[in-house]
Amino acid sequence: MFEIGFTELLLCFVVALVVLGPERLPGIARSFGRWTGQARVYLRNLTSELERETQAGELKRQLADASRAIREEADSAAHAARTLGESADVRPKPAAAPSSLPPAAEPEGAAKPEPK
To answer: For 108-113, which contacts have Cβ atoms below 8 Å and span 24 or more sequence positions?
Structure first.
């Protein structure tokens, strides 16, 4: 961004020393250092928060993509099952009523159960 070399820093220090004087310069340097540190902490927190938001957005997008894929597969499976059911034409046949069945033929010489 900005490239400040050693000579530019030295020039700024000399100007500050002449303008502020040797008594006030250390206090102002400390205040400037604290302010710079606080700004760095603020920017670091802001950067990490933006990073988390970006990751959360990516996770939400991935979750939406996965749920859409699952929904499409479920619809595809349901359609395949319907198609398979229609092509097989599987319908249960009604069972015949017991009275309409012919009597079972018993072999000759078979013992009949005795009534109790």
So the answer is: none
